[in-house]
Fold this sequence. Notes:
By secondary structure, this protein is mainly beta. Helix content is 6%, strand content 40%. It has an eight-stranded mixed barrel with strand order 1-4-5-2-3-8-7-6.
Amino acid sequence: MQxxxxxxxxxxxxxxxxxDKKLLLTFEDGVGPYSQHAMIHMQVQFSLNxxxxxDPATDYDTxxxxxxxxxxxxxxxxxxxxxxxxxxxxxxxxTLILSGDGGDIDTNMGFIDFTEANGVxxxxxx
Length: 126
């Protein structure tokens, strides 16, 4: 399993990364400290999260490769993902689109930097 981020997505995400942080692809099912409660969603929804490397991520037990480095996911969320995925930045809407071999997975994927004080409030997908 792998994810490729296009140039626009890399430009949006990379400034938030450094060796003391890690990336999580969160299935929004209410499980874990970085996930919203599943009852507010009517469709499959994901968010890309930046957390400190020292922050707990015990629910994220599977690693996938990307051109931004390893990304941790909840293993069971693989059921809603594809072997080959892409993240495209929609410049007009300032949103991220997660797609795979089977088409779009989440056309408004959230991006939350939990290392910033206003990370959740500044998320255009929420």
